[in-house]
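STRUCTURE:
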């Protein structure tokens, strides 16, 4: 081997090692960052829950210190809870800037984001859409993916939503996964009754028919249905009849 060729190979090897080390350091940094953000998000939500949820008054209601929540962030407009899951979070009112995709309930930057809605009149509109990330750590709206399992659906068909002036129960009547653009095209020209019929037909599983639906809540998160490493263009949609609780 000529000396020049040997020198070139040594140089290439060194560059490859340096690139590998840079990638390794970046990957380690991202792993540590994600872990710390997950821990901060999870721990602060637990602390918040313990601080503002005063007591369980019965199976349908909880007492929440709304003044304390509003003092933390005026964008907090509700609380969502699905029994026997990790879904137990404040709901934030966002705008078209989508701040809470990457910010926690306290306004601090965090890749886990928050559970939020873009509705102008949440829970008063016919359809209220609530968004949350599908995090690999299992927090936020990750467990919505489990509704693709019929047994999980049967055991977790009820959603509790609390607001300052009104509490609600939501009964799931549809769950499915579809591309976000396809979903938008499917419902954009439908009136509310037609939209309800569409959701019932789109459901992966037949769910006992629910009538007299006047308002609904639609939970949405990214889908890993066909790709377990990065989100696809699909979303999980969980649709539930929204009713006031006295």
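SEQUENCE:
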């Amino acid at each position: 081997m000529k000396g020049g060729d040997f020198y070139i190979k040594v140089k290439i090897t060194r560059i490859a090692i340096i690139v590998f080390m840079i990638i390794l350091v970046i990957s380690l940094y991202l792993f540590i960052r994600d872990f710390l953000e997950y821990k901060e998000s999870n721990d602060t939500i637990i602390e918040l829950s313990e601080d503002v949820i005063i007591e369980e008054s019965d199976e349908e209601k909880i007492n929440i210190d709304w003044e304390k929540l509003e003092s933390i962030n005026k964008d907090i407009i509700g609380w969502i809870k699905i029994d026997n899951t990790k879904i137990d979070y404040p709901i934030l009112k966002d705008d078209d800037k989508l701040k809470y995709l990457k910010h926690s309930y306290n306004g601090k930057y965090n890749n886990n984001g928050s559970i939020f809605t873009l509705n102008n009149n949440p829970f008063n509109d016919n359809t209220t859409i609530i968004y949350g990330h599908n995090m690999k750590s299992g927090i936020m709206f990750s467990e919505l993916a489990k509704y693709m399992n019929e047994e999980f659906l049967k055991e977790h068909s009820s959603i509790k939503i609390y607001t300052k002036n009104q509490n609600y129960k939501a009964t799931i009547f549809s769950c499915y996964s579809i591309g976000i653009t396809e979903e938008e095209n499917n419902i954009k020209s439908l009136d509310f009754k037609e939209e309800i019929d569409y959701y019932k037909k789109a459901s992966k599983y037949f769910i006992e028919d629910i009538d007299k639906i006047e308002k609904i809540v639609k939970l949405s998160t990214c889908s890993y249905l066909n790709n377990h490493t990065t989100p696809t263009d699909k979303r999980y949609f969980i649709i539930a009849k929204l009713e006031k609780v006295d």
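REMARK: The helical segments are 3-52, 66-72, 150-155, 180-187, 192-202.
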